[in-house]
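Section 5.1 Outputs to date
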Amino acid sequence: MKIATTRFGDIAIDPDRIVTFPRGFVGFPAWRRFVLLPHRDASPFWILQSVDEPDLAFVVIDPRDALPGYVARVPAAHLADVGIESDADVERAVVLALVTLRGDPPTATANLKAPLVINPSRRLGVQVILDGSAYAIRHPILPQGATRLSPPSHAVLVTT
């Protein structure tokens, strides 16, 4: 299947790699089908490209790359919406943070307060707002003075 994108031109994707977000994202409820594309070799960033809107793409990152030790404590009811119901489902889930880029990459931030949780076996995703967490909407990806990201540390998702 080919999709049109404004940043990468027409690209071929495997339809089995499309992830559907039944409720869309905060601020983008109308667009629900996305495909995750690698940014480039060895990059911590990924591109979440809309299948239906060529102009719509998000830069995403494993939140542990922005904050080692990050854990998304998500109510089980939110995870059930995307078919994450067992401990095995939780272990296979993919958690991503939306990245905001502002000119110079060291000023990039990740939204750790509202991560994306994807069930890869069902290809369903949800954006979850972590009410009551101390995580920031604009967490600097690089600590002040750092020049590269730290490696991820441990599990990223637990149910509450």
